From TrEMBL:
Keywords of this entry: Isomerase, Manganese, Metal-binding
Pfam family, one: AP_endonuc_2
Residue ranges of every copy of the Xylose isomerase-like TIM barrel domain listed in the record: 101-286
Protein name, per record: L-rhamnose isomerase / sugar isomerase
Keyword flag Isomerase: yes
Lineage, opening ranks: Bacteria, Pseudomonadati, Bacteroidota, Cytophagia, Cytophagales
Entry annotated with the keyword rRNA processing: no
A GO MF term: metal ion binding
Domain of life: Bacteria
Length: 425
């Protein structure tokens, strides 16, 4: 959807202004620092969720924007477009059964033709599928009926098998299980049954796979959630074994939770598996990353940069970097481009933090100095560095600019129609 001449024409148009800003910034930072951060940025890829390429909605309504992908093949083409624009979206995370690959090998090759690999697979035991034997109305792995639990375990193992065919190396398990009224559920039995089910799924993991246990405070249950917070997820992951980790979805916390502290401790324990990036003001709003609380996103990456170095983790491959969003009023592809930009900006700013000075300030309880050091990085406009990283990686100086200049959404509506609806949330 983007021809090489269109990309080079766009960059030629923006080159002079970009070079002016980048040269000034590189002088400010010093070339050693600028090159260090550029190298990290070029390697840093963020997986795109296959369920967020169409218009999302709420129980009150859904306002489709048109030109949505009608098949897994078209979803891969859309992620391929994002990757062509920013060379930062080199992976797609599938959700089963919303995106069952008809022919694993063919789908794998199609993705590879767009420079894409498959990140974590996602199972779905929060909806009943047509023809399904047992309902998940009262949960899946926690269910009081062993037949329901068995069905959920088998589904997760089926998802692993699909992932193996695609070259994925991890499974994310998010369970909507819980209760909506006091008295409804035995918390202890629900935990033990869920752990037993996760153990069967864990046993089916290939040797080089990971399982991510995603926690969430509430919704769709509104009294208790059986994997309700980082502590419960850590408990499951610790009892399961070395291939089990926690997954932090930024929207899955109670108001004012200190997510950067949670991230710091899970990383310290070696039990942080990855992220579902998004932003929120109230609940699991699934808004554009960095659109509501960009400082929190920076503080989270500040803990990540420090904690990953402390554990000798490779920044690009040591954790799962994924977006999980839902687009009610924005163009899905524009929203995803903005999320990738915000995530990489927070990462770059975290890499700019003077860690030695920060440690000194902390050890001397110089609180004001510590804040100055952090905010100096957060308040440095590193966008020219992100643009330079894209330019060097063969992408667009302004991905959103090129998307609009080429009227991609109008072209998608012409080929796919206004009524095209993507599977997903
Ligand atoms: C649950 C969740 C989970 C996905 C779903 C689409 O809120 O974050 O990660 O399975 O969204
Ligand atoms: Mn999520």
């Amino acid at each position: 959807m983007i021809e090489p001449y269109q990309l080079s024409h766009h960059n030629a148009q923006h080159e002079a202004a970009h070079q002016r800003k980048f040269t000034f910034l590189a002088e400010e930072l010093g070339s050693e620092t600028a090159e260090r951060i550029l190298a990290r940025l070029i390697d840093f890829q963020i997986a795109i969720p296959s369920w967020a390429l169409g218009t999302g909605g709420t129980r009150f309504g859904r306002f489709a924007g048109g030109g949505e992908p009608r098949s897994l093949e078209e979803k891969i083409a859309d992620v391929g477009l994002l990757h062509a624009l920013n060379k930062s979206s080199g992976a797609i995370s599938l959700h089963i059964p919303w995106d069952i690959p008809s022919d694993g090998e063919a789908i794998k090759q199609l993705a590879a033709s767009h420079g894409l690999v498959f990140d974590a697979m996602n199972s779905n035991t929060f909806q009943d599928q047509a023809g399904q034997a047992h309902s998940y109305k009262f949960g899946s792995l926690q269910h009081t009926d062993a037949r329901v639990r068995k069905q959920a375990v088998e589904h997760n193992i089926d998802v692993i098998r699909h992932g193996e065919a695609l070259g994925s190396k991890s499974l994310t398990v998010w369970l909507s299980d819980g209760s909506s009224f006091p008295g409804q559920l035995s918390f202890r039995k629900a935990f033990e049954r869920t752990l037993d089910g996760l153990r069967e799924i864990y046993a089916a993991l290939p040797a080089d796979w990971k399982i991510f246990v995603e926690y969430k405070a509430f919704e769709p249950n509104f009294y208790s959630t059986t994997v309700g917070d980082w502590g419960q997820s850590y408990l499951y992951a610790s009892k399961l074994g070395p291939k089990a980790y926690t997954l932090v979805d930024l929207g899955h916390h109670l108001p004012n939770a200190n997510i950067e502290q949670i991230v710091s401790l899970l990383l310290m324990e070696g039990k942080l598996g990855g992220f579902h990036f998004n932003d929120s003001k109230y609940g699991d709003d699934d808004l554009t990353a960095g659109s509501i609380k960009p400082y929190q996103l920076f503080l989270i990456f500040n803990e990540l940069a420090d904690g990953m170095d402390a554990r000798g983790l490779d920044h690009a491959t040591g954790l799962g970097w994924m977006i999980d969003a839902s687009h009610n009023v924005k163009d899905p592809l524009e929203d995803l481009l903005q999320s990738v930009e915000a995530i990489k900006l927070a990462y770059a700013q975290a890499l700019l933090v003077d860690r030695t000075a920060l440690e000194n300030a902390r050890e001397n309880n110089d609180v004001a100095a510590a804040q100055e050091i952090l905010q100096a990085a957060f308040r440095t406009d590193l966008r020219p560095l992100l643009a330079e990283a894209r330019l060097r990686a063969g992408a667009a100086i302004s991905p959103l600019g090129l998307f609009r200049e080429q009227q991609i959404r109008r072209k998608l509506i012409e080929t796919r129609g206004l009524k095209a609806v993507a599977t997903g949330l």
